[in-house]
Amino acid sequence: MQKKILNILQYIFFLALGLFLLWWTTKNLSPEEVGHLKELLKEANYVLVIPAMVMLLLSHYSRAIRWKILMDPLNIRPSMPNTFFAVMLGYFFNLFVPRLGEVMKCTILARYEKTPVDKVIGTMVAERACDVVSLATVIFLTVVLQINIVGEYASEELRKLFLDTSGNFNFNKLFIALSVIAAFILLFVFFLKRFSHIKPIQKINAIIKGIWQGLTSIRYIKKKGAFIFHSVFIWLMYLLSIRVGFFALESVSHLGMKPSLSVLSFGSIAMIITQGGIGAYQLAVQKTMTLYGISEVNGLAFGWLIWAVQTIMILVCGILSLLLLPVFNRKKNEAVPSHTQ
Q: Average pLDDT of 133-158?
């Protein structure tokens, strides 16, 4: 009962956070700007959104193939349709309850393929660990390739933190900041070791251990080349879907691959913060676009557009997957020849 209450409170908290961030994105907009925002979304070329949806679908299909590659060393070889349906339902359930999607996609695949749930969950941990590394790589490339834009913005924010009232660099502020970070890391490690018997700490330790085991388990993969290819292809499709999405909104259609990379980086982080990224994604895209001279209204319009594309596609594909799963597996079972007389 207590766990159920905690889950409900967690759901309410993240939903409230998303709604708060939605309000935050528009709180400084005048009535005229709000009207302009609605007009931008109304006049967007939604036909050009279709290729972006196709690219996202290809990335999800590629993710299903990569998941099969991860399961192969465990002698788990599910059918491609069931694997793809499970992946889409994972995204679908994550829209409503944080982390429910990971559990559901493993449970669904185990049910229809008659495989052990614990083994399937183990592959999910490896997949998530790979995604963490991939996102870190994307963020690194974003900063390195745009040091004059993203790097300068970060530097300016840091300067604000570490300059004194006269505009001179304050080493005391830097020393304090580094000391606080070091103390936080040491305290974090201390708590993990000292209170390892407490359930919340055990969960944190399990997450850290799981990510490490997931990364190290990749060495057992037989098709390493295919695994790397699909890992790159997934994020490439994410990137291109944003680039193509720019064409749907005239005010941002001139933007190229580098802004797309920035939206991918900061937007991906935002998707983790709230359920389905609601509020957080729009805010992240809005602020990111200002780095490229795009007004907050136009940036927010694009944030809403690309978020809606992803969300609608997941809702539609999730519902279709729910309907097609039993149909496909009934036909599959009927196709198996009977050995009984």
A: 77
Q: What dihedral angle (degrees, nearest 10) is formed by the CA atoms of 97, 98, 102, 107?
A: -30
Alpha-carbon span 145 to 94, nearest angstrom: 32
Q: Find out whether 88 and 65 touch, Cβ atoms under 8 Å.
A: no
pLDDT tens readout for residues 243-295? 999 999 999 999 999 999 999 999 999 998 888 888 999 999 999 999 899 99
For the chain, how far is it from start to end, CA to CA, in angstroms? 50
* SS3 state of residue 303: helix
How far from 248 is each of 26, 41, 82, 299, CA to CA, in Å?
Answer: 22, 10, 33, 13
The CA angle 173-152-183, to the nearest 5 degrees, is 30
As a whole number of angstroms, the distance between CA 112 and CA 104 comes to 12
Instruction: Look up residue 75 and give its two tokens.
Output: 């002698």
Angle, helices 257-273 vs 224-246, to 10°: value is 100
Each residue of 146-168: b (16+ CB within 10 Å) or e? beebbeebeeeeeeeebeeeeee
- Taking alpha carbons only, the member of 117, 133, 82, 120 closest to residue 235 is 133
Tell me phi and psi for residue 57, to 5 degrees: -65, -40
Determine the Cα–Cα distance for residues 198 and 21; give it in Å rounded to an integer. Answer: 33
What token pair was written down for 309? 């594309």
Residue found by looking up tokens 């005010």 in the block: 251
pTM of the model as a whole: 0.79
Asked whether 252 and 73 are in contact (CB, 8 A), the reply is no
pLDDT for position 310? 93
List the Cα angle 323/328/334 in 5-degree steps.
135
Q: What is the pLDDT of residues 68-86, one digit of tens each?
A: 998 888 788 899 999 999 9
